Task: structure prediction
Amino acid sequence: MFDNFINLYHGFAIASDPFNILLMAVGILLGVIIGVLPGLGGANGVAILLPLTFSMSPTSAIILLTCIYWGALFGGAITSVLFNIPGEPWSVATTFDGHPMARNGKAGEALTAAFTSSFVGAFVAVIMITLIAPLVARFALQFGPAEKFAVYFLAFASFVGMSKEPPAKTIVSMMIGFALAAVGLDMVTGQLRLTFGSEELLNGFDFLIAVIGLFGIGEILLTMEEGLEFRGKAAKIDPKVVLKTWATLPRYWATSLRSCIIGCWMGITPAGATPASFMAYGIAKRVSKNGKNFGNGEIEGVIAPETAAHAAGTSAMLPMLALGVPGSPTAAVLLGGLLIWGLQPGPMLFVEQSEFVWGLIASMYLGNVVGLLLVLTTVPLFASILRIPFSIIAPVILVICAIGAYTVNNNVFDVLMMMVFGVLGYLLKKTSYPLAPLVLAIVLGDSAEEAFRQSLLGSGGSLGVFFSNPLVSTIMVLGLVAGLWPLISNAIGRFRVAQPA
Amino acid sequence: MNIFNAFGLGAITALGITAMSLQPAAAWEPTKPVEFIVPAGTGGGADQMARTLQGIIAKHSLMSTQLVVINKSGGAGGEGFLDVKNSKANPHKIVITLSNLFTTPLATGIPFNWKDLTPVAMLALDEFVLWVNAEKPYKTAQEYVTAIKAAPDGTFKMGGTGSKQEDQIITVAFEKAIGKKLTYIPYKGGGEVAVQLVGGHVDSTVNNPIEAVSQWRGDKVRPLCVFDDKTLPYTDKILGDLSWSSVPTCKSAGVDVEYLMLRGIFMPPGVSAEQVAYFVDLFKKVRETPEWQQLMKDGAFNPTFMAGPEFVSWLEGSEKNHKALMQEAGFIAGN
Result:
């Protein structure tokens, strides 16, 4: 471990080269823009800029690209809080309380909390990478299809069990999501499903289109119905908002710590940032003493998902470097970059290219500090957008949404689908079906199904594979408890009532 | 936000300007950015090759306009191929292919055939290698085959990329050659397959060299044989004294299976001969660059180049081959 510190020290010397610091700032700024524009996304942004880096040294190149990634992670929170449009999949859970906070005139607080939590999550994850990188890589190897399915199962189950809405409505909403996720190519049999001979449906329903429609367009429709203005009072712009919010944050250390652990764990097990953010939110809601107020603008509801998403996003870099398995689409593009620069990700990378690896890890420390400073200065700027009259900002949002939906696949049909999802989102909200389980199912439905069927292929159809070793059994039992929690707590409650009588 | 937007656009425009430079006059030249369709997801083999090509072309200013990589992976790549098929006579669009050029229309019934496109050139052929976990006792393909034969059908698990595509086709051919069934488990990408092998979740894989080479160097996996008629020419040491050239052919190990995957370029239907010639010439220049040669070496590719009638007759033979293999395996779509 001591070697790690010496290596890290050398890494800092490389990363703090003025040119590299400049690249960090440029990368973060570009990343924030990419994160703000829904649909463009971190993966696309990195892919577009990848050719620019071919003339740089690999270390400088990866610093630029990873900083774009950090920037996108930061930026995703901005539109979630201000307009209820998650710029990135992992920001969906941030909208649940971040947007209500903005409507209550607390946009500045919500943004500060989001950025700061992101930073904390990322920082803890980098420390973990520094200390136990080789151990973590070995742990990730234990994840076969059964273990992966167990993690997804836990994410779904904790949502059903922890939801504030009636479980039946949560399940209905989740099932719609699964049905939508099933459209397109079935990876296991190689057959097309539910495409009805339509070329447009070959690709299935992209998560981003669904989210932009359900949240962004749905929100605009709701607001229009309620009279063409932002609900709640306009934010007062106070440059000191950052410091004031900071003063309140240490109170939530338990939530932060828990979310860091969830995030690191989900990032390593390559489940990724999106389920991490949902799970952290769900658990915070259940555990926090303010849990009842979640969904109405509780600052803890912003801290939990943002911390977890960043911890996961950062720790997902580790399996990529050590095993060559990308933990996210952005990591996949970065992986392509590594190969082009002549670096082979894998077990030997830490040994043969230690200068590159530790330069990168050092840049994670520095990049996140630079990122935090940069984005915090923009808080008052972004918060002031809410002072613009709704009748002006709504068409702008609509156009940004449409561009975002188009950019995902360069397809006009997607813009149409976005509108359909918008109406669906409006109807579901009106009938008070929760949107989050639907979104979670669209994002993870495919992967969960795949992992489930791969496990059964391997076990010859026996469900015993999900309880075949201590790791997978533990996760499955946790999932079952989480999913059946309403029944369990009900039973305990009755038992308690029955006892005295 | 507007200021940031302008900044972003500026950066992209700057990229465009660096990519622009004067070219010797040719009969036809692109007049606007050329779309480079990848009928597969980001990060896979085809995507990596496309992005490397994009980088090489930009770095050496081989084209007067930009080359823009676009992934259209829906329906096992069917989305990308249909897009090119429907862009009749558009010379500003090219597509890179993998074996899904043949397998996707056969397996899914998506209305498309390679004859709907204009063949440009074969850039290289990708090899396939039989891999096992390095901790397993099998040192040679014979030892592994003996172990499979000694166990009941379906005991051994073969991991591969996708379903009814190249990896599964090779697996079926392998099963036929040894007369025993394996359990095929499909995964999304080659990198994931390699890691599942390292983690011991499958018994063997047929990864491309580039997908598994880093695990080999780390002594986590062991190559048993290559599915080609001759051993690979690359002699750079990878693990100890071993190099790609020390991996025997599967045929020599008694498993008579050969399979190579096309990495080729196609254009939409109805483009002129001059336009095709421009791109043939472009990719010939790419092949001269040191970056391309490095890629060929890193990925142990078979660097065969073909264009014109020679390429077309290769395609015809390969299509017949795929049809026969897939018919036998029962992979052809029902309609």
Q: What stands out?
A: Chain A has a mean pLDDT of 83.
